[in-house]
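#lab-general

N.A. 3:47 PM
ok so I finally got the sequence cleaned up, no stray characters, all 360 residues accounted for. can someone with queue access submit it? mine expired

B.Y. 3:52 PM
send it over

N.A. 3:53 PM
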Amino acid sequence: MKTFFKILVIFILLALFGYTLYYLWNKSKEKPVVFKTEAPAFTNIVKKTVATGSVVPHKEIEIKPVVSGIISEIYVEEGKMVKKGDLIAKIRLIPNMINLNNAMSRVDQAKINLEDARRTYDRQYELLKKGVIAKAAFDSYETKFDIAKEELQTAQENLQLIKEGQIKKKGAPTNTLVRATIAGMVLDIPVEIGNQVIEANNFNAGTTIATVADMKDMIFKGKIDETEVGKIKLGMPLILTIGAIDNTKFDAHLTKISPKGVEENGAIQFEIEADVKLKSKQFIRSGYSANADIVLERAENVLSIPEKLLHFDGDSVTYVEVETAPQQFKKKIIKTGLSDGINIQVLSGLTKKDKIQVPL
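B.Y. 4:20 PM
back already:
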């Protein structure tokens, strides 16, 4: 009996040992590689480049005063629509004391000259009535009197212009009222009542009282890298994606490519502009960030495959592995065309029925 149990134990141990060896051998065997395949398909391929920038009004005008002074009234607020000629603000003048003093002095001189001309005119008129002088001689005194009256009026108007910025007698438009020069929306009012403003002149750009823009005429302003600028040309279509507006794309076309590049972060960038085709009832705020897809080339409904299926032999030979039998593949040279970075056009060498090996 003891011998039987010994034999049984030995048999069990040998069986476990054999099973362990078989398990380790089976586990160490390499599984056969099974390649997936893909077939060519007809699709649209669009080659494009991307420019980043923003959407801004085509016409954005800074309204500046024609006289210096202090803002006394502001008649509009940001976001309000205005028409050409609408009031923007009113300016209270602060006259230059030297100019004011000179103007007052000219008025006083003109009064003295007028009074002298009047006395001479009156004397000569009495002589004319008595027949002492001829009418031709009197005409010169009358002319001098009229000139003196005109000089006084001009001096008074000049004084009024310096003090008030307008000539009320003639009904001329006042320079102290700042008006919109174009129709559009008020985007910005960088001044407040009480701020001092400076008129535009040869030495100063002047103080901006308001910025007005036509929000129905928008453009895309962006920058493109020097490696891509040679591939674009005026009139090319663009597809705009605005970050603040979800699920909406806008059509545009390229209208400007800057001839001069600017270095930014070690790369040369060229500024571009494109007219944006707005959608009805779609309001776009000035300064929205946007990306523009510039379509360089397009191929419609062409046979294509994913670029990941390609193999290369040197610089000129492109091939794929085509299945000839289940899990058996053969090298096949093809000719390719347009690529969008994901799919590539197949010009020759494949048909829609071919099955191409997907590299592991």
